[in-house]
Known about the structure:
By secondary structure, the protein is α+β, with helices and mostly antiparallel strands.
Amino acid sequence: MFCPVCNHPDTRVLDTRVSLDGTSIRRRRQCDECDYRFSTSETVELLNLVIIKRDGSHELYSREKIERGLRRALEKRPHTEADFRGLVAGIERDVQRLNAQEVRSSDIGTIIMERLKSFDKVAYIRFASVYRSFEDVKTFQAELDRLVASSRGKKKKAKKSGKPKRRKSR
């Protein structure tokens, strides 16, 4: 790798660390010529993935487009940048697991919705309102009802699978 200061072609790796979420690698490097130290980051890219849009047109996968939509849905919601990066990385892992050269935009939308549902329910509803093109309040309410029912079902399962209470022995 070229040194960003003197443009020397040889730099050596001093330290390599995997990120906490396991989605990237950070390398600490040093130039052999000028001793300048700098860091690089490696992440997996989805290359040559073609998205089939609703109208049948095709376009190349764009991480930035997903990030833009997620940032809109998560606007003014409490989350850290690390959490956001983890969310995007999880979505991309799910897309990679499809193991396909072409993916329908609706499949990616479904993956995003599933991830958002557990990440932030308000952002989920915001995203769903655009993604599913809610046309009236009834459609919006129906989605809210499904979300509430889903949350209640998970809470009941959690209570049932919990450990029984122990009585104190005397």
